[in-house]
């Protein structure tokens, strides 16, 4: 099977399970005749793939240039502290996964945070934490 | 002329000579820093301190005159420790920013970064080293990975994938966060790594090296209650000298034996003896399979990298493997039974150390099936390091012989170290055992040489025995695919490392095509120079059967010298 299809397959698996389970990596490595380390490396190269189950709420906070100028750094710190996890981690209760990301496309309205498909703009720390509280 | 004892060696000296000068005459090197031959004696750095019996304080060898009857220890554990402390103080007193620890790095003799720095005339380092803060990967019993020394050059990735056909490493993440890792970040010991060590040879830095056993071997040598025996693999004697600035392919068998005796091993034995023994067992097994009609092909089983490879990737062929343990393990089993019994040594007090060209042997010795018959495995590089630490000028030592009972070997045992050697040794013996006629042409040229896959057909008593030989795991994989697709052989030799053990993961750096070819020539030179070139001619092996084992493949032989394998997951 062509390697280009690998990404497509990874997307499908990610959408089905919310992450890429180990046994799926083993299957892909068989089908694509690649060492499983290579499949793993591909997954790790792209930030949209996960090798661990993610939380119910995917929290993405932008830390690209424009948002950074609007103190997204403070926002990132506040969210991290509130959830008690670092970038890329999932809370123990499997509710939240945090991702610090590049540009979410609302650069004029920063700082910006996304929870699942919902965009929140012009945030400050208190509002962000209130949004997360409302998810509970 | 007066005499004194330095490290147990008697030395004659003229009055006025220093301990340092006298030590050189008996091939003992004492490290020096502030001393230089054409300058007056200073005695300031004290890196050259030695122990003199009856004196409370250590004395600097460069500044102390030797006198009649002195008993001097130049490299006792105490001296070595004090020297290290002194050295640390010297280094600490300098403004050396040694964040990466070049001084203690596994590659301090062979670092390519340092080579390049010299080649390009680098004369400043303006940036502070970045502390990446990764943990070392110590999950493997054979290999350590130190990611903080990794420059993410990817050479190990390609070596493992392209030359070994395994593919353990990958890059993860992007940009400055890029890091070399294994599947699922599990570590080398928790994935399908074969422990072959070829990635070490690929790495330009100290990011990959073997799991060291030498410090524990020092402890054993110090322990007077232990009876410490050592065995040396066939490929070590043709490579060890490279660590002492000699040409690749220099043969130092006798010097190595002498060096091991000076290090304090109670007995110095030869893995080549066990290789001859392996041929008796494996040859008999092959003849048995020929009589029983299979299962074919029979695969050799002396390369633990190959064994782990087949256990992971081709478990459906496990019954094709010879049930023979490797020579290293046969040696251990025989030493701890036969030798121990004959000499009234308690098995528990015996320590078996191997010197191997191989990192996978460390894993093999710890396999549950092996019963702790081999306690420690040193690579060729580790032995070199111990010899240096003891101040022994190895290549200039007078040659000595292996100890009797497990020290004799034939030419057949010697060539085990090269790809094709096990095949050739087995054919020499199988031919004579089957036909009961003398084999006239001993050299099986088609299975010799550095090619990755070799094939040969041999006529034995009207039967055409089809054989194949592969070295380097991607060649091994190719040959297995051929077999899967219906190609038929009777006997197949597989070795994990390109060129066989002479190219093993524990050999001196650099190990490349050139050095492997030189070492190979030396191996066949040893064989050609032997009066006896067939394993069944080995008198000590015959004696072992007579006194202890009975016959090849006997019940006791099976118990001690044979093993079984397990299917491993990927
Ligand atoms: S690999 Fe790094 S630490 Fe080791 S000798 Fe080279 S520069 Fe120094
Ligand atoms: S030891 Fe061999 S199999 Fe394991 S990572 Fe290194 S090259 Fe690959
Ligand atoms: S070869 Fe060595 S330096 Fe290069 S990527 Fe591998 S571990 Fe890192
Ligand atoms: S920079 Fe934050 S949304 Fe574009
Ligand atoms: S050597 Fe050419 S890019 Fe690395």
TrEMBL record, chain A:
Binds 1 [2Fe-2S] cluster. It comes from the Bacteria. Keywords: 2Fe-2S, Iron, Iron-sulfur, Metal-binding. Pfam families: 2Fe-2S_thioredx. SUPFAM superfamilies: Thioredoxin-like (SSF52833). Its cofactor is [2Fe-2S] cluster. Gene3D superfamilies: Glutaredoxin, NADH-quinone oxidoreductase subunit E. [2Fe-2S] cluster binds at residues 62, 67, 103, 107. GO terms for molecular function: 2 iron, 2 sulfur cluster binding; metal ion binding; oxidoreductase activity. The keyword Iron-sulfur applies. InterPro entries: NADP_DH_HndA-like, NuoE-like, NuoE_dom, NuoE_N, Thioredoxin-like_sf. Belongs to the complex I 24 kDa subunit family. This is NADH-quinone oxidoreductase subunit E. It comes from Halanaerobacter jeridensis. The lineage of its organism: Bacteria, Bacillati, Bacillota, Clostridia, Halanaerobiales.
UniProtKB/TrEMBL annotation, chain B:
PROSITE patterns: 2FE2S_FER_2 (PS51085), 4FE4S_FER_1 (PS00198), 4FE4S_FER_2 (PS51379), 4FE4S_HC3 (PS51839). Residues 78-121 form the 4Fe-4S His(Cys)3-ligated-type domain. Residues 1-78 form the 2Fe-2S ferredoxin-type domain. The keyword Methyltransferase does not apply. SMART domains: Fe_hyd_SSU (SM00902), NADH-G_4Fe-4S_3 (SM00929). The keyword Nucleotide-binding does not apply. Signal peptide: none annotated. Residues 141-171, 185-213 form the 4Fe-4S ferredoxin-type domain. GO terms for molecular function: 4 iron, 4 sulfur cluster binding; ferredoxin hydrogenase activity; iron ion binding. Keywords: 4Fe-4S, Iron, Iron-sulfur, Metal-binding, Repeat. SUPFAM superfamilies: 2Fe-2S ferredoxin-like (SSF54292), 4Fe-4S ferredoxins (SSF54862), Fe-only hydrogenase (SSF53920). PANTHER family: NITRATE, FORMATE, IRON DEHYDROGENASE (PTHR11615). This is NADH-quinone oxidoreductase subunit G.
